[in-house]
Amino acid sequence: MTDTLRRLVHARVEEFGWRSGTDLEDAVALWLQRAGHQPDRVKQQHRVGRFRLDFAFPDVQIAIEADGWHHRSPEGAAWDAERDSWLRSQGWIVLRVDERHGKDSFDEQMSRVCRLVHQVSKAEAGG
User: Fold this and answer.
1) How many domains does the chain have?
2) What are the pLDDT digits (tens) for 42-58?
3) What is the dihedral of CA 112, 68, 30, 116, to 10 degrees?
4) Radius of gyration of the chain (CA)
């Protein structure tokens, strides 16, 4: 992504009330915005215990982690496994998205995430 495009994306993310982060985090924020999820319900950099979640739906305990290249390293993968295990023990559902297979794959991952959030939210509401 060029610096000019990156600045435009960051500005767009912030215009909607999200905090700009990595390119992938910004893509997640824009996807959530388009899907109707607002920053007042989806918390960014939400702390749970000693961990910080990229995006969290605290009311239904669903976390979205935007995984860049570091998460594919042995150290990153080990840290993620420990973290995910602890979060699951606390009742959280941890969903990971990445861009390594291109935009279509990312869009499909985000579509699945949004469907799951909708289903869990609906079940929690008794509907």
Assistant:
1) 1
2) 999 999 999 999 999 99
3) 20
4) 15
